[in-house]
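Discussion board: Methods & Data

I've been asked by a reviewer to show the raw model output for two of the constructs in my manuscript, not just the figures. I'm not sure how much to include, so I'm pasting the format here to get opinions. Each protein appears as its amino acid sequence followed by a line of discrete structure tokens. Is this the kind of thing reviewers expect to see in a supplement, or should I convert it first? Here is construct A:
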Amino acid sequence: MLPCLLVVSGSAFSQDLFVDSGDTLWVEPGGILTVEGSITSNGTIYLNADATGYAQLLQVNNVGNIGQLDMEMYLTDMTTGWRQLGIPFTNQVQNLNTDGISFITSANDGGVAGRRNMYYWDATDAGAGEAIGWTEAAPTTTGSRSYTVFGDQNGVHDFTQTIRIGGTPSNGNQAFAVKNTYDIGQTGNANAQGWNFIPNPYPSNVSVDKLFALGSFPTYEAIHVWDNVNGQYEALTSSGVTVYNTNATASGASHIQPFQGFWIKVDADGTFTLDNTVREPDSTATAFMSSRPYDLLNLSVTNTNDSTYDRMVVFFGPDATIGMDNGYDAYKIKSTRDVPTMYMEYQGLELSINHLPVAGYSIPVTVKTQQAQTLHTFSLDDNQLDPAWKVELEDLAGGKRIDLRKQDMTVKVDMNDNDKRFVLHLNQQGVALNAEQTLPEIVGWVNAEGQIGIRKIGMDNGTLKLYGLGGKCFATKRMESDQTVLSPRLASGVYLLQFTDDNLKSSSTKILVP
């Protein structure tokens, strides 16, 4: 039998946990309470949080729980806006015990529908293959899912820095139906297909590495997390390369914290199941993975008027391909806020992270804004990029071409700008021949002049051919240098480059002609 008040600081272990009526179990921030069996609470269990950390509950076995647990989350900022929260409780919304944030549904909106601030993503097919989309949470909606919740100090949606939510803690196997539908209005756009909003369903951290290792994790090995301060989605890949927009330095941790919702992308309807093996308490964890050392560049664009910004990553590796490399490449989920949104368009994909073989490239870059004629600055973080790389950004509208390793580029960006206004030119100088020969590849790209640039890597002299998808050959060229260009007049579409060297070694790649 527990005393009236028991305070846990640090770590504590229990076989089964029973808290009697009137009794309180208080776990200090940073504390970890491990329970091997079940939890029964007729009293109160508090997992507390502050600026130093948050308490966690780890359960080892797949058993059911009974009764109430109250858990706190500490907001590192008080920015007005939408937060994407994962609720680690099994209760209906109306039965959650909340303090410090309002969950406004049709039952407590005061008759004003516009006050409702709690929505979940419904990926069910609404017709023509499209998801139903953001859906108002009803009082009876179950709690163990992800929600987007609006907070503002306006007398209706007020919130505090420390939020406490209580219910029966989720544990064991947690299955989520996932759908391969399109985002609303995005039928036919593969970049917008198969997105599902999943919670960390537990009152403890989840290991990102163990999450990727689950048999139910989709082929696309990346997780996307909303950064409400900067109004952008961050991409976390299984390889460790990450785009994150936080100003804080990544700690090297690889965990998703409690109350965090995240997005995954599937290529078929199915079930995504989490279990206790992915739970891994770590009192110092953050929601971000650190970037592992690669030949990598990080390009930022900043609105000089309000300092909002976005980032994208290009990096090079020995196992890279031109197409989608799962675990390395990451799609761009576009922001819904009035902030600059930047992404690469390559091989028909919209990417925030692009993993490529060592070669020369001219990559179209799109920057979107909701403002008219506003100065934006492009800057390069090249601390992980070999000095042999030359990085230039070209503005096709303004005629500028700047070496970003020497200076930033500042230009006016408008809401009506064409897509692919900018081109990122990447060329490596002084690479040893034997280094290139380790990658037998043919690489192609459309350069700023509209020509098709081709580079062979690790292959002898041979014959290059350009085909349409219907099999028609549009060009044939003998290739005896490492790099050449083709200048055929082609309609927009996808084409196939095929190179066969004199030793009958063959390589091919697809080219998107805009």
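Construct B, same format:
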Amino acid sequence: MQNGVIYGIDIAKGSSRAQDVPRYAVAVLREGEITPYTMLRRHKILGMVQRDRPDYIAVDNIYELAADKNDLMQFLGRLPENTKLVQVTGGIHQKPLLRLAQEHGISFNQFNPVEEAEVCATLASLGVGCEVSLFEDVTKIKISRARSLGRGGWSQNRYRRKVHGGVKEKSREIENVLRRFSRETGFTYSAKATEGFGGYVRVEYTVNARRDKVPVKPSNTADVQVTVKSVERDKIKYLPLKKKDRKYTIVGIDPGTTVGIAILSLEGELLLSRSIRGISHDEVVKLIAEYGKPAVVATDVFPTPAAVEKIRRSFNAVLGTPGGEMRAEEKIALARTFGYSNDHERDSLAAALTTYKNYKNVFSRIEKRTPKYLDIDRVKFHVIHGASIEEAIEKVLPSPKMQKDVRPAPEKTEAPDVDEQVSRLREELSQKNAQVKQLKEYVAELKYESGQKEIEIEALEHRISKMRTSESLKVRRDKEIQIRDREIERLKKELAGARKSLKNQRLHTKRLKQMHKKEMKGEGLPVKIITSFAKEAIQHTKDTYGLKKGDLVYLENPSGGGPVTASLLADSGVRAVITSEEIPHAALEYFYDSNLPVIRGLEVQRVDDFAMVDPAMLDEAIREWDEKIRAHVREKEHQQFKSILDEYRSERRRGLA
């Protein structure tokens, strides 16, 4: 230790989370002598710490000094550089202060804050406990302007160059110090500079070392300021005060390209949780060995991977396996207490914690049955390897000769003085009465708090009942609103369809009226539509609309017709047949012979089953048809004459022959 001063602190009145300022009992351990102080406030303690600069400030619970992590960080920030805050009861898994004191042969009144503070200071001097670390082993150094440059006037550029030049000059001085520091100690650093007019606006150095190791102090001048800060950790880390002997451990392994490693002590304290990509088997073994000798090497999968089995053989450890596949929810629940960064750390933690839970009850029995002067971890190690508790204790017990040396010799007893004994008993009785009084007051306080809690619970239950009723009404109302919304949406769709249909009907009616007007004015002639050139379609049109002499018909699909279907139209006396496609040859010949015009390509205005053609265009088409008929008749007569002539010539040839 540096100056041998240790502060032990215990809360005497109030709480760090209460509105009233708490008061503390302080025991200052200096050169083996303890100086007690009572009912001190925290700011007074900090003043004493700045004066004495102790090595340790020892407490049994760090949250007696601070309400939360932020408050604790402010407290640590006000401590001298080399003063460490120590929680003597351990890290995450704490031991009771009374038990720790008994293990180290210290007796005290646990209801006396001054005595508790003395015990904390004494245990810290023995190296018991963990340092509370809230900062990484990384230090940030920032060199920047000490004032804002403002808008300035005529000399603004000169002033800016002066300030930025000062920042640059100071950064060079600090970089020379860091370069020498890195060369001497091996610590590395990196720099980041922001350039400005005539120099630097700011320069930041990141040094991979603790703040108390870095030889740079904060400073402030007229133009340049230097700040030195440690980098805050995501969560509190507990560092043991003294290096322990090589302990037995439980190791969880998640093998693969990225290896997850979790190491627990046999007391369930997390020593390591990491995931490393591309690490070799030898490097894994070396890393595990740095934290102790593995008693169990565990995995979270079944069957055991070959890589885990290889690591287990390297240490001759017992294999820990879940006996089946672990669910992801179970792994998350196990590892959540310690925290993890990725799935590899989670799986290795789950494997180690599952194994520890399997042995926890056995470890408890071992701790109760093992003598205090024996190494309990060695007893646990032998039990893990298959020995019974009695066999394990026998293995750890020293030889008979050494047992005589280890166990303390009986003290010589002298007949006590009766008056002294009575006085001592009266003093003990007085202390017990005082303890009973304190306990009664504490019980009365707990009863009062319990009554208040009952009132609060009743109020909350009433509130929950009201909330459930209102929530039920809200759910029913929301359900009805959903039903109405769906009905509104359906009706909207129906309305849109009806509007569309109405629009089409109006357009249809309008076109029919236009056709009717044209017919009345003589600007259009009605046409009856036949869907196909078949008997059924022609008969359907006859039955529905009638076919009389002088009607115009429109054949939608003339294919498939013949002389029979053509005769049905010709016999009906229709004036003309209109079509948009080719009519079969046999039917067309019948129309030629019947002198029934067949008009193709004539423009037809149609609305559903009603159609109309322009009279002028119809007359023109019929004239063209007549010309076509006359040409057809001439061609037919010519063919007949030619046929008769050919036949006559053939008979003449036969007669001459």
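Answer (T.O., handling editor elsewhere):
This is acceptable in a supplement if you add a one-line summary per construct. For B, something like: DSSP finds 17 helices and 21 strands in the chain.
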